[in-house]
């Protein structure tokens, strides 16, 4: 299944890319072929750079270049660079086409003049073309530095004025260079952009990590915050690899304040939309001055990595504190610095959690030096771990960065045009968040064997009704996820219930999207619904779990008489043993009557019919036999005994009501059938939940512990549901209920009022103390 | 039967009293004259035969309403002027081919869905009464339809009195209810509730000089030899005009068509009353330069002058062709001129005190009615069938059988509540089933589909779930409570089908590339028919309705959801249709209605203070869903990682 999915995703991606490419070529068109007559005008436009390729039909393998040229043309349009092609074979511009090797280069024109000439073999893809063109376009604004001295000259020049963004690039013509130049184009008026292709420049200028970096890197030199006379500027390194989206996010953070005060009323901070880690400097009134200094320094040091927020616990509201950390006490131990790592809260945030998990990391120091060090360690560790995750994800999805950036280009163009825009990755596509729909969709090609649960029609439904004394029909909608999920259980159940001689099962189905008339006649208004027909008449709806075993048991019990009449001791024993070992039910119910107990017999019989499918009831109508059996359980006659297979603490239970009243008898059987101290599972939870009592849950627990709680439970003195949970189940349980300290936990119904909870707890007190002893 | 041809006629003559037991018998009864004829309409005719309901006209809508009344056990009688049902169809369409599709195969067994493509059948529980079983023709003969209508009446034992030609209808005093009906023999019928289902059957005959030289569509000869080698002019641009042209074209010299306004092609306007492709052979020959042609001319300004055996046409007040211009397009004389200008409602049967107001402008051929099908000015006078088309003229299908079979049912539901306090039929749904029901309806419902923009499903949201009403006239939304008998104190959702607001119209090209919308976020831009859901936090008022934006069928809702159009008209794609609809409904209901497996519900119940709606409604009631073996693994991982 997993490999299918992968293949599917890949196909989708390929399709998506193909679509993008198609759209792009449609939207931007191919490079204009420039008629010779218009050539002068074309290259003469004053403000733009013009790239021209003089085409001759002679070079082999030109297709790839021409495609890249096209792609670069549509992309560079955003930067007011126009591309053109002259066809030297058909419509030559003599001045150029006459030169023999003119088709071995791309020409860049500005103001009528050839500004640059690029050999065709350096123009190997779109990025190479774009990068080179950018280099010409911005040659005067973005100097290429040859030594660290050049860099220090730049620093002197912009000291107290502008921040410098310096990059080491491996070469011109790379994707990274292209990205860097795009930023130089967009942000050239705000920052000074410079770069070097020689890594020594960075190393000798003593830039951070310069010696260790292996991939192209970017540093920001914060010259604007220094005095005119300073020698060097404080620096920040861009920690990620050069990808459009990441650089964009980074550049945006450069203009945020060093730190902000925690907003009141839970307003957003300026960092909110920037995907930054958040560093909280918590203080009270007395330490505020000092804290502000620390915050300011941290803000400078962590520029581009984290946003710093000053939190005064004396003025902040309780809600604000609670929204930050579950452990608000720690925040009050001022002065303290805490970090909320970006991505962590969203990763851990459970779909249904009311509150994010506590993701605060509290730092041990409060002086700037060690703090910065600690923070950097923390952040770099986090970065490494997320990068690892990302790599795994990328492998999964076959995602590839340049394509991603291609999608971002348009956004970026808008962004640079407007100056400031909200940044946040967004997607038009809704993502399926219904686990059942998702599971059904993934399994949509699985073939279900529904031979023994045939699809009925308007004609075959009434025929089948006549033919079968017991007919169980599921009414469903084919496209509905719950229906589809249940159909696979239904298929399994039909195979289980197959009757060899007749080669059929009591199960059948009606698709309401095919036969709305049949469904309407049967009063179907919710889907799926399973209905039981006995001798052609509607009997009842199946109200149990949509589950193979539950359905099979239900049908098996329906096939037995209700009640079963028992005439001898052997029959009684057989009934009990047979019923309980067959597995369709955990409960056998015995009605012990004398012949003269007509009213009781009637009530019992009627209850047996009502409970048919859920329980099996056996009826003794002979006083002597009834007394004999009754004596085994200590039951009087008339009486009712519920015998349970799996309840070691309470193997049977007697009906204590003196008067046989059907509703109370039915209710008794339903409750008495439940084990008194079961292991809690998804399947049995609802039957306990419905009792509206608190749960007392024993976690883990071994022999003796189980035994003693089991005995308390069997005594049935407390109005609670006792149950146990095995802690071997998922680790999350452990976290949730945690703890070695308390082995037993009381769950109260969440729908109850607080008074009711308190009352209930007080009832429980004696029990808990007993347990502690 | 759509289009101009589809007007069936009605009507009437009454003979007193007895309920028809059979066709033959009833005409015998008709001979027993009642002596009550009198010129004094205000007199009391205590001897008049009384029924709670009288329906005038045993055409498709009269029969349809009769069926519903009969099923509800009401005391009713249908009065029919002919000696059997469907009188209009015995004459029309003149060339005997219905242009309502009779689609016998759709690849589906869903009967409701199949009614979307059966434009002739009436609604009933008797499955033998489907036109698909009467004819294999895609466009069946009108003769078969007459037989179908009479079978419908006979098999369902509808109470019809034939040979009753209604001459006059009046009321006494100021009573709100109670009508008197006199037939051609002076017999008088009385009823409490009157439904006029007479269609529109009176031919339109404009007044112009020389109109006596013109033959009407209603009595033109069908003998082709008459037209052989003739030059023919047809006045009109509707389906009857084009149908006539098609019929005679093979034997004529050429055929010209005069039309006052531009020809509207049904495939451009999505209105079945406009010119259907099946009838537009003349456009083909005109544009392929085969002599025939269409001219835009104001017929009221026309004069027909006889020159020997031939007729020439002149326009009065024609500044263009007066004097110098000698190239008037219709200057060559015609041998035959045929008028095919459609029909209008017969208001002559009403006493002058209760003549129903007619529609305005183009709608003057229909009586003016309120959204509950009641006359604008005569209280208690209801209409059914083609004559109710003023409500959706050129907008939907209320003038045609496949449309008015549903509006007639709506009328019946309205009358049941108005007259007998039986509320509009409804289904109570749990919240978690609302979406399934909506999806099921959008995938199969025929009434919503045929009567798009007019009939809508209404979901009244309450504490426990919702009450679902099907196919209610949405214009009644402000009066929902008084019209249907269902209280709607809070949230209401309306689902209708709509075409894009600027998608249809003469001259638009629905076949151009790029008309399809495929991305869900653009669903609201979709042009083709698709479901639209309007959510109102409170029922809109009459005032809201009056002030709705132009082209809107309903006031601006609190929230609006367009389900993206679908080429297969199947709205069950898990993400594009279902997921987006669920987002809308979850917002409206304020619940998370995602499905969860039992394991997830259990976990949430144990660790949270509340669980999602589906877990509450299903899992906690013991009806949780476990995974069958094959989807288990994936679902578990899903739920734990989220």
Automatic annotation (TrEMBL), chain A:
CDD domains in the record: PDI_a_family
Pfam families: Thioredoxin, Thioredoxin_6, TXNDC16_2nd, TXNDC16_N
InterPro entries, alphabetized: Thioredoxin-like_sf, Thioredoxin_domain, TXNDC16, TXNDC16_2nd, TXNDC16_N
Annotated TXNDC16 N-terminal domain residues: 33-133
Domain of life where this protein originates: Eukaryota
Keyword Ion transport tagged: no
Signal peptide coordinates: 1-25
Thioredoxin domain ranges (all copies): 456-556
Protein name (record): Thioredoxin domain-containing protein 16-like isoform X1
UniProt lineage: Eukaryota, Metazoa, Chordata, Cephalochordata, Leptocardii
Automatic annotation (TrEMBL), chain B:
A GO MF label: monooxygenase activity
PANTHER family the UniProt entry points to: FAD-DEPENDENT OXIDOREDUCTASE DOMAIN-CONTAINING PROTEIN 2, FLAVIN-BINDING MONOOXYGENASE-LIKE PROTEIN (AFU_ORTHOLOGUE AFUA_4G09220)
Pfam families with a match to the protein in the record: Pyr_redox_3 (PF13738)
The UniProt record lists the keyword Oxidoreductase: yes
A cellular-component GO term for this protein: endoplasmic reticulum lumen
Listed GO biological process terms: ERAD pathway
Protein name: FAD-dependent oxidoreductase domain-containing protein 2-like isoform X1
Keywords: Oxidoreductase
Gene name for this UniProt entry: LOC118411629
